[in-house]
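Sat 14:20. Reprocessing the chain from the morning session after the first attempt stalled halfway. Input below, unchanged.
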Amino acid sequence: MFPKAIYLTVQNGLRSLISTVAMDDLLGNRELNQQLLDITASQVTPLGLRLINLSMRDLMLPGELKKLYAQIVQARQEGLAQLERTRGETAALRNLANAARLTHKNPTLLQLRLLQALEQSTGNTFHIELSRQDTSDQDNSQDNSDDKA
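Finished this time. Tokens:
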């Protein structure tokens, strides 16, 4: 008689507690055990019983509810992963913008970066063509300056 009365009392207390708590809190909140003990202890006292300890061990969800909850958890994790990717992309763009500003203000930084890239490359051949002014163009420009003088 007493075991069944205790079982029903705890089950009713658990149902009333679960109806007021979100699913995430049910899974991770250890304080719920104490709340459940408080709810049910007062109900078994008139029977001459005293509950000392009470704990929930397993939380079993019906199949469909379990699938829905798994989908919610997966969507939440995907959202967090997307947020982290977006933060990384934003940081990379910020770094690129800072680098662009620096190279715009100091063009020699770009040349130094090119030298670093050449130094770090292995097994590759780079052809760098430096532009030189044609000597005939220089002669023409000097002739024109002589005519003006």
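The longest helix spans residues 63-105.
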